[in-house]
Amino acid sequence: MNTDSRPLVSICCLSYNHAKYIPEAIKSFWNQEYKNIEILALDDGSTDGSLAVLQNLQKQSPCPMTVVGQENTGRVSYNFNKLLKQAKGKYAGIIALDDFLYPTAVGEKVALMENDDNIAFAFNSAITFVDADSKPYKEDRLSLFGKQNATADDILENEFNMDWTYYCQGTFYRTDVLKAVGYLDEKLLADDYALRIRVALWLRAHPAARFANLDNPACFYRRHPNNISRDYLRQALLIRQVLDKYYPDRKLPSAFMRMTRNLAPVMNFASFRKIRRFKDEKSPFIKELLLYLRVNFKAFRRKMFRVRLSKNKKVVQLFSASRFIKRGTMMTNVSRLKFTVHGDDRGSLIALENGHNLPFDVKRVYYIFGTKAGVPRGFHAHRKLKQVLVAMSGRVTIKTEYGGKIETHLLNRPDEGLLIEGLVWREMHDFSPDCVLTVLADDYYNENDYIRDYNVFRQEDAS
After folding, report:
1. Can you give 295-364 as a three-state secondary structure string?
2. 346-372 residue pLDDT tens
3. What is the CATH T-level fold of the domain 9-228, as seen in this structure?
4. Contact 290, 279 (CB under 8 A)
5. Residue 330 near residue 265 (C-beta atoms within 8 A)
6. 31 with 103: CB under 8 angstroms?
7. Residue 25 in this model has a pLDDT that exceeds 90
8. Rounded to an integer, what is the distance from CA 138 to the centroid of its chain?
9. CATH assignment of 333-462, given 3.40.80.10, 3.40.50.720, 2.60.120.10, 2.40.10.10?
């Protein structure tokens, strides 16, 4: 009999072919410093014996543990809701059973919410990535790291820009708040992405309510070959569904445009076959995206695939994505980046970090200043180099050309950058006297990567 008088916490967890990882996840719940928990686990028709693993652990569990098995549905939000509606705890969290928790994950959140009735949920703005063998290899700081005074509007804006605010794994909510928002959105493919937005919208409508943001990690997020996030078509679809539903009046963010623009080179042949799965969907976006994919599949199949017939069997061999990308065709890209400003009454600060708000690892930085009035610069292209241009002060106009398209971009804010990837002709015009243009690059100086002859660029751009 449980004699712990503290509030009960419900940990709702899903499994699909996670047999190898389930024991570590469940034992991380057992090893919580906060002991008054219940575990609700659902296996969604696994074929690797996951259900049997869960049932065996259920017999050993030192805390109440419910195990549900069912035919495969593939409906993540529906399955989490199924568990959340059974949860008896005052607080609840959701997690997949290929991930696992730090021992302090539950207790640190419950203590905050018990001490302040206005805290609707508590999360961590850092997370630890581990590989398939549970070896940590990276700690990621998310967009609200160090921002204890952030608001619901900050969550909504950052989520719109795909500058993720927190992972639901390791986050704990008041159960009545989850009920008030209708739990996860079952009409969309997205689970945690949509939930973060739903809860933030609820906070905006309840000004007295707030959230707690901790800078330490609480969850080990496992990257392995079967992560559902590696299904790039599904990821693009779910993000666009969320943007269409929750931000219907806003122009699509540049991060999403980059994602869809670069989708074709990293997709395998099986991903294209999934077009059939969505062909009857009513969403205008799905029709739009599938048209995009079909067009690009036809345009690039000669470069991406070799098809041969062997007897009566068609064999499709996917060329290496890296080989294809090096040709520069699909990875050509010019887009805006938005950087988060930190500040108080003393002034403002912007931090640029590899793997966080920069889309590549920086190997070279240079800056241009003191440019004489009326003097343009640039007039070259790179074959492979990736760059981010930021006007630290003053202003400058960047003219770009690629794929037969000419664009101009005004840079006049230190919190905005211009990402240029691949075969793009660039020119810099109209420098203001106080302009300091900083350029961050993903590789060292290499004269062989430059194209300084415009006619040569036009030939390569057309090929």
Report:
1. HHHHHHHHHHEEEEEECCEEEEEECCHHHHHHCCCCCCEEEEEECCCEEECCEEECCCCECCCECCCCCE
2. 889 999 888 678 888 899 999 999 999
3. Spore Coat Polysaccharide Biosynthesis Protein SpsA; Chain A (3.90.550)
4. yes
5. yes
6. yes
7. yes
8. 15
9. 2.60.120.10
Closest CA to 228 of 97, 41, 380, 32: 97
For 190-231, write each residue's pLDDT tens digit: 889 999 999 999 999 999 999 999 999 999 999 887 777 767
pLDDT-above-90 percentage for the chain = 61
Token pair recorded at residue 66: 């419910």
Q: What is the mean pLDDT of residues 235-257?
A: 86
Say which residue the tokens 């017999």 belong to: 59
What are the domain boundaries of the chain? 9-228, 231-326, 333-462
Q: Hey, what are 156's tokens?
A: 């909504």
Q: Which residues fall within 8 angstroms of residue 173, CB to CB, at 6 or more apart? A: 91, 92, 93, 120, 121, 199
- 460, pLDDT greater than 90: no
Tell me the two tokens of residue 82: 């199924």
DSSP string, 370-435: -PPTT--EEEEEESS-EEEEEEEES-EEEEEEETTEEEEEEE--TTEEEEEESBEEEEEE---TT-
Q: Is 409 a catalytic residue?
A: no
Predicted local confidence at residue 234, as pLDDT: 75
Question: Residue 45 pLDDT > 50, yes or no?
Answer: yes
Strand partners for 91: 9, 174
CA atoms within 13 A on the CB side of 388: 24
Which one of the listed residues 206, 224, 356, 380 is annotated catalytic? 380
Decide whether 9-228 matches 333-462 in CATH topology. Answer: no
